[in-house]
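Hi there, hope your week has been kind to you so far. Do you reckon you could talk me through the fold, stretch by stretch? I've dropped the whole record in just underneath, so have a look:
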Amino acid sequence: MAPASVLKGGTIEEQNFAGLVEALYKSNNIDAKVADVAKTQYAGLCKQVSTEMKHLFETFSVSNDRLDEFYSKILDNQPDNAELWIVMKLILVLSHGNAAVESGFSVNGDM
């Protein structure tokens, strides 16, 4: 979930998130309750970002900021977004690194 996508919000972003959550559910990484609640919480986050968190999301820099730290500050220890944080942590675990470096194992395969 790129901060720019959350900032943009809208139907397409929510559909993309719903597809992601469904894939996590089908692969038994989350249960149905977490999936349903996370979708609602994502929509709520998009609304919050369009108003009170707008500046924070606008100033996120891909080259200077860490995505895990960014979302941790926003979602960790926030009971209203607990299920969304579960999904975000799973997303952040997915490796996008060099296959040669990973050679012996694959987190993506386990997911």
